[in-house]
Automatic annotation (TrEMBL):
InterPro entries per record: 6-PGluconate_DH-like_C_sf, 6PGD_dom2, G3P_DH_NAD-dep, G3P_DH_NAD-dep_C, G3P_DH_NAD-dep_N, NAD(P)-bd_dom_sf
Residues noted as binding substrate in the record, renumbered to the chain: 106, 256-257
Alphabetical list of Pfam families matching this protein: NAD_Gly3P_dh_C (PF07479), NAD_Gly3P_dh_N (PF01210)
Entry keyword set: Cytoplasm, Lipid biosynthesis, Lipid metabolism, NAD, NADP, Nucleotide-binding, Oxidoreductase, Phospholipid biosynthesis, Phospholipid metabolism
EC number(s) from the headed UniProt entry: 1.1.1.94
Positions of the catalytic residues: 192 (proton acceptor)
Protein encoded by which gene: gpsA
Originating species: Ureibacillus xyleni
Protein name: Glycerol-3-phosphate dehydrogenase [NAD(P)+]
């Protein structure tokens, strides 16, 4: 049994805390909302994020970051990308020992263009980081809490650390593979949210299965082109954290990014969509970063570019799709290079 802290009591952080608690670990779930911690401890529910789920009695929550950090030398970071640096800054006062960090968020920071592991490395002193492991893959929290079979990947340059995380989480319904391709895993997890927004827009426009299949396939080509240019293993993008995560995020009503895109496709403005969602839609922020990366590395990413125009320059979705369809003709396989 291990002492484990999970930072972030959203749907995914809570689902992972449930897995850890059910695996017998002494799990402490941190939330910055006092009332949410009280609800989890007294009612064993988290109605805002997982309304139909009863939490294990041995899962404890706290709103004290100091208590959360002192609890364990294994910290699962499950806060949105935009909150990573703020949470790291607040942690600094309490970090007195080496910590194995496991991050489960999926995003890229605009402007700095850093992956989350890079943000953690920059924001935290090197002498308190034992290792940083990325945990990613096709995984809806709503299905994990129902014990539906789920398979994901732990990525770290240090295989021993990846295997430790594998052992922490793995059980009969939650399978974990390992890899050393941190770059590929992080990019696949982040960039699939961009394509999921586009898939939602396509569905909102009632363009059907042909269009969505094309978006998923050509979207994977974009992700792979950029990922390989940035040092990722090309095989990673056809695996769980690439193709797998892309499929689940582009085709499910559980996907926030698909739902947000769907509303955009039906004519709703971005500000109204985000207000109605009530939860972080990582793909919006990541679209800006992905567009910036495509410019920096001179990698053609036409779907990402079209989505950037829709989100940030108010281009009509139908016009953006029409322009994608009439681009210059080219070979398919050569275009994957």
């Amino acid at each position: 049994m291990e002492n484990v802290t999970v930072l972030g009591a959203g749907s995914w952080g809570t689902a992972l805390a449930i897995v850890l608690a059910e695996n017998g670990h002494n799990t402490l779930l941190w939330t910055h909302r006092v009332e949410q911690a009280v609800e989890i401890n007294e009612q064993h529910t988290n109605h805002k994020y997982l309304p139909e789920t009863n939490l294990p009695n041995n899962l404890v929550a706290t709103s004290s970051l100091e208590e959360a950090i002192y609890h364990s030398n294994i910290v699962v970071v499950a806060v949105p990308t935009k909150a990573i640096r703020e949470v790291c800054e607040k942690m600094l006062a309490f970090l007195e020992k080496k910590v194995l960090f496991v991050h489960v968020s999926k995003g890229i920071e605009p402007n700095s263009l850093m992956r989350i592991s890079e943000m953690l490395q920059e924001s935290l002193p090197s002498d308190v980081i034992e290792e940083i492991v990325v945990l990613s893959g096709p995984s809806h929290a709503e299905e994990v809490v129902l014990h539906h079979p789920t398979t994901i990947t732990a990525a770290c340059n240090n295989f021993a650390a990846a295997e430790k995380v594998q052992d922490l989480f793995m059980n009969q319904y939650f399978r974990v593979y390992t890899t050393d391709d941190v770059v590929g895993v992080e990019l696949g997890g982040a960039l699939k949210n961009v394509i999921a927004l586009a898939a939602g827009i396509s569905d909102g426009l009632n363009y059907g299965d042909n269009a969505k299949a094309a978006l998923i396939t050509r979207g994977l080509a974009e992700i792979t082109r950029l990922g390989v240019k940035m040092g990722g293993n090309p095989f990673t993008f056809s695996g769980l954290t690439g193709m797998g995560d892309l499929i689940v995020t582009c085709t499910s009503v559980h996907s926030r990014n698909w739902r947000a895109g769907n509303m955009l496709g039906k004519g709703m403005k971005l500000e109204k969509v985000l207000e109605q969602m009530g939860m972080v839609v990582e793909g919006v922020r990541t679209t800006k970063a992905a567009y910036q990366l495509s410019q920096k590395y001179e990698v053609p990413m036409p779907i990402t570019t079209a989505l950037y125009e829709i989100l940030f320059n108010e281009k009509e979705p139908k016009i953006a799709v029409d322009e994608l369809m009439i681009r210059m003709k080219k070979r398919e396989i050569d275009d994957l290079q």
